[in-house]
Amino acid sequence: MKKVFVVGGSGRVATDLIKDLVATGNEVTAGARHPEKVIKLNHVTAIELNLHDSVEKIAELMKDADAVYFVAGSRGKDLLQTDAMGAVKTMQAAEKNGIKRYIMLSSLYALQPEMWSKIPSLAGIMDYNVAKFFADNYLVSNTNLDYTILQPASLVEEPGTGKIQIGEGSATTNPIPDVAQTLADILQHDNTIGHVIMMRSGNTPIEEALAKI
């Protein structure tokens, strides 16, 4: 059992992620600007988290965690202070507390800006790509965290299949439940540490796909 801190704990991905983390025996603290919107389950504690706050205040909230997930997103409304600098603050807070494991939900090709204009779904969210580029680069280059960055294709509200494809491919979407399950399973796969993982809908069971990394 691990104590897991989920940043952005009331969102679409977070809701399924929290269910999956609890199902595998973890204790979850879900930090959200509106904690009343966090899913109510046993072994889940909802707390108020504002990414505009100082690193010190954020660090105090996550001080007991073994691992941190960043799945927050402003959906275009607060890209600089939430998606970019907010993410960086949580990395700094994790390091301040000696927390090593950090799992980031990002976006397909976030670290490859030359790809953004080539894919219509990415070209339409250019400012979001820039925010994720900044955050992902900081995580890789400016921290000593045991990170994994998951870069899914476009998220869709469809039933999960339990199957994905890692790396290049033709699929352009991922059902949200599959993204959440992949994030949850990453915590059990230390072989994913230090990796940036692109994922799409596919035909490989999630567990099998992660084990091959």
From TrEMBL:
SUPFAM superfamilies, sorted: NAD(P)-binding Rossmann-fold domains
InterPro entries xrefs: NAD(P)-bd_dom, NAD(P)-bd_dom_sf
Pfam families: NAD_binding_10
Residue ranges of coiled coil: none
Ranges of residues in domain NAD(P)-binding: 8-189
Name of this protein: Oxidoreductase
Species, as recorded: Limosilactobacillus caviae
Origin organism lineage: Bacteria, Bacillati, Bacillota, Bacilli, Lactobacillales
